[in-house]
Structure formats: C-alpha cells, structure tokens
Amino acid sequence: MLVLLFFIIAFHITSAALLFIATINNAWWVGEDFSVDIWKLCLNNSSNTNCTDITAEFAEYSTLQAVQASMILSTVLCCVAFFIFLLQLFRLKQGERFVLTAVVQLMACLCVMIGASIYTDRRQDIHNNNFIYEKTSEGSYGYSFILAWVSFSFTLISSLMYTILRKRK
C-alpha cells in the first residue's frame, strides 16, 4: 500500500508540474525566428530575443484570455486537489473513497481540456490575421502545447485513480 501511495503522490506532482510548465513556458506555437505562448511573443534575432506581452490592443485577445484563465484555473485546482488528498489521507475512515479529491482533479482536467481546445480551435484566427507577427502562421505547435494535452490525460487518469482508490491499512 505504501508503494501505491508513493506512486499516486508522484503521479499527482508530475501532473501539477506539467501544468505549471505548459502554462508558464513560451512554446505553444513556435517557428524558426519566433515563439508564442498565451502570454507573450518572442522574436529571435541573430543577436538577441525581443519579447512583447500580448495585451488588449491585439485582435483575438479575449480568446487568449480564456485560454490563460482556464490554464491557471486548472493549475490551481490540481494543487488544491493534492492538498485535499493529503487531508483526506489522514482524516478519512478506513474503506472510504477519495471522492472530493477525484472531483476537484476532474475539474482541473476539464479546465485544461477547455484551454487547450480553445487554443487548438482558434489558433488559425490568432496567427493568420496579422495578430502579432505576420510570419506566425508558418509555425508549428510547441512542446508547451503538447504538455498541456499530456497534463490533460494525466489529470484525467489521476482523477480516475482517486475515484477507485479506497483507504486501506
């Protein structure tokens, strides 16, 4: 049981770390001389990198705000689920399930799915309408975007694990 508990804790911490990296890192859409995330655009010249924050003056800013909000909410919910799990670990009676932890983790899963889905659906609108930089339509999805989808599957799996898990000796 102790090995299972260690595996569940490590899996949850990995999910939270993936969410943090996907939310913070600047690699949702990358090209040869630029990288764009949900927060800023960075242009890479031969000598330096020039980063510009994405603000309300850009078209499709409200779309990126929805992605920002859902990714932040998913990260916060994943961390809250971990603390609820730790509290339930010591407070639940033997044989009870970690239902509250599973529900909060499932909400984190849904939030990351919503954020990544909005970005997937609206990516062409964001990058093809001279949103920030005319050459951003010539890029590809970066590793932060991929990590967002991986963290979706990790949070879904961990919410299912918490649903099935019973407190045993």
From TrEMBL:
GO cellular component annotations of the record: apical plasma membrane; cell surface; cytoplasmic vesicle; Golgi membrane; membrane raft; nucleus; perinuclear region of cytoplasm
Membrane topology, from the record: Multi-pass membrane protein
Chief location category: membrane
Function: Functions as a key regulator of cell membrane composition by regulating proteins surface expression. Also, plays a role in regulation of processes including cell migration, cell proliferation, cell contraction and cell adhesion.
Residues annotated as signal peptide: 1-16
Keywords from the UniProt entry: Cell membrane, Cytoplasm, Golgi apparatus, Membrane, Nucleus, Signal, Transmembrane, Transmembrane helix
Protein name: Epithelial membrane protein 2
Domain of life where this protein originates: Eukaryota
Description of how the protein assembles with itself and partners: Interacts with PTK2; regulates PTK2 activation and localization. Interacts with ITGB3; regulates the levels of the heterodimer ITGA5-ITGB3 integrin surface expression. Interacts with P2RX7 (via C-terminus). Interacts with ITGB1; the interaction may be direct or indirect and ITGB1 has a heterodimer form.
Plastid recorded as keyword: no
Lineage of source species: Eukaryota, Metazoa, Chordata, Craniata, Vertebrata
Location in or out of the cell: Apical cell membrane; Cytoplasm, Perinuclear region; Golgi apparatus membrane; Membrane raft
PANTHER family: EPITHELIAL MEMBRANE PROTEIN 2 (PTHR10671:SF32), EPITHELIAL MEMBRANE PROTEIN-RELATED (PTHR10671)
Transmembrane segments: 66-86, 98-120, 140-165
